[in-house]
Amino acid sequence: MKTILEIKNVCKTYQSKKGEILALDNINFRVKKGEFVSIIGPSGCGKSTLLSIISGLEEKTKGEIYIEEKKVEGIAEEVGYMLQKDCLLEWRNIWSNSILGLELKGKIDENSKSYVESLLKKYNLYDFKDKYPSELSGGMRQRAALIRTLATKPKILLLDEAFSALDYQTRIMVTNDIYSILRKENMTAIIVTHDISEGRFRSRYLLGFFGNCI
């Protein structure tokens, strides 16, 4: 399989009252198209920082990032990002939430709306498209958040402990559900977690990540 993402010598330092703090030091790895990679490590070791750097939401101090051999500068349009919370807008119904990313990118047209509709039908949320987030279960909200992310057709999906806000039983059901969706959509995905059992589940390979905890 072709390499879709390459991280080369990425470093990140922060300035604090106590001086310079090294959060990431010389991080290197490659991800091939269609792979599901888990980055595992304790809280505060820089996992989420790395995802923010890959997405372009945070600047790296040193190093380079390539997506499909193209050097990334600024926001990476090819990347979709799911955070710890679903971040659905409570005043918008599920349909409106699902097309939010398309609206923000100015990509709303009949084809994109048809694609969102197909995702909602495929993953059993179409009958709830006129409902509001408060009317959905935690698992359904996560599915809606994923559909919102997939709607923009990202080449790489980043999941930042996307299931940590759910109780254990719901998390098990949702992880089965979400990973099944990612496989069907042939998504390349990177998940960060401190839960080894979650990281091992369905991952093609794991990256032990025990950087400078801060």
Based on the model shown, name its key terms.
214 residues; alpha/beta; Rossmann fold; five-stranded parallel sheet; four-stranded antiparallel sheet; 7 helices; globular
Structure notes:
- About 30% of the residues lie in helices and about 30% in strands.
- By secondary structure, the protein is of the alpha/beta class.
- It has a domain of about 110 residues: 3-Layer(aba) Sandwich (Rossmann fold), CATH 3.40.50.
- The strands form two sheets. It has a five-stranded parallel beta sheet, with helices on both faces. Strands 2-1-4-5 form a four-stranded antiparallel beta sheet, covered by helices on one side.
What can be said about this structure in brief?
This protein is 31% helix and 28% strand. With 214 residues, it is α/β, with parallel strands linked by helices.
CATH topology of the domain at 1-78 and 157-165 and 188-214: Rossmann fold
Q: Which residues form runs of ≥5 with pLDDT under 50? A: none
Helix proportion: 25-40%
Instruction: Determine the N-to-C terminus distance.
Output: 36 Å
Largest beta sheet: strand ordering: 6-7-8-3-9
Rg (C-alpha, Å): 17 Å
Structural class: alpha/beta
Name given to the CATH homologous superfamily of the domain at 1-78 and 157-165 and 188-214: P-loop containing nucleotide triphosphate hydrolases
The main β sheet shows up as: 5 strands, parallel
What is the count of helical runs?
7
- Count the strands? 9
**So what's the overall shape?**
globular
What is the helix/strand order?
EEEHEEEHHHHEHEHE
Q: Which CATH class of the domain at 1-78 and 157-165 and 188-214?
A: Alpha Beta
Named at the architecture level, the CATH assignment of the domain at 1-78 and 157-165 and 188-214 is: 3-Layer(aba) Sandwich
Average pLDDT over all residues: 83
Report the portion of residues in β strands: 25-35%
